[in-house]
Q: What sequence folds into this?
């Protein structure tokens, strides 16, 4: 068993800056909120081979108006090729940009769990397991959710409701999960 663990992105730290390729052919920074939004929801999905990813992305599209109303833009990205994404778009009904070509070094930089395909019929490349990042106006990670399988993802209603609450300036809600292990007192 390997002891080479992927480092994880931590809340309140800067989100890594790198470019991705969009389905339409343009390149852009992965975190570059559009449409007058100042926060970005970045969804990393497994790829076209994953029916649960297709379902999640299509469902997320229904929450775009609520997210835009609180200033949160959406982008999704996978390690698929341009051709795989083009085929996948036939099953997608999304209203946000989809990027492709996430590299293994980028997956590591994001702290994603990475899987090897079970067979060539599944896909032809190693792929990331689901990850979700909410990046605030300062470019820092506000919310992070990582999974090592496609069956564990955040509930979208709860996520949008929580982000709505966080974005309300009257709530003064801090970034959570920032205490370091050495800062925590161990109970005996």
A:
């Amino acid at each position: 068993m390997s002891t080479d663990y992927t480092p994880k992105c931590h809340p309140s730290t800067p989100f890594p800056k790198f470019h991705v390729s969009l389905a339409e052919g343009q390149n852009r920074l992965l975190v570059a909120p559009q449409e007058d939004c100042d926060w970005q929801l970045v969804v990393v999905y497994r790829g076209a081979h994953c029916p649960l990813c297709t379902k999640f992305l299509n469902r997320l599209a229904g929450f775009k108006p609520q997210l835009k109303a609180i200033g949160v833009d959406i982008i999704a990205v996978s390690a698929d090729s341009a051709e795989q994404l083009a085929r996948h778009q036939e099953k997608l009904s999304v209203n946000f940009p989809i990027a492709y070509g996430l590299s293994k070094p980028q997956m590591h930089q994001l702290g994603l769990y990475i899987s090897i395909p079970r067979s060539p019929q599944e896909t032809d490349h190693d792929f990331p397991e689901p990850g979700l990042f909410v990046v605030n106006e300062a470019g820092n990670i506000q919310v992070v959710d990582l999974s090592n399988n496609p069956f564990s993802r955040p509930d979208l209603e709860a996520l949008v409701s929580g982000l709505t609450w966080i974005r309300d300036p009257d709530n003064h809600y801090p970034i959570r999960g920032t205490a370091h292990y050495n800062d925590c007192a161990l109970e005996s």
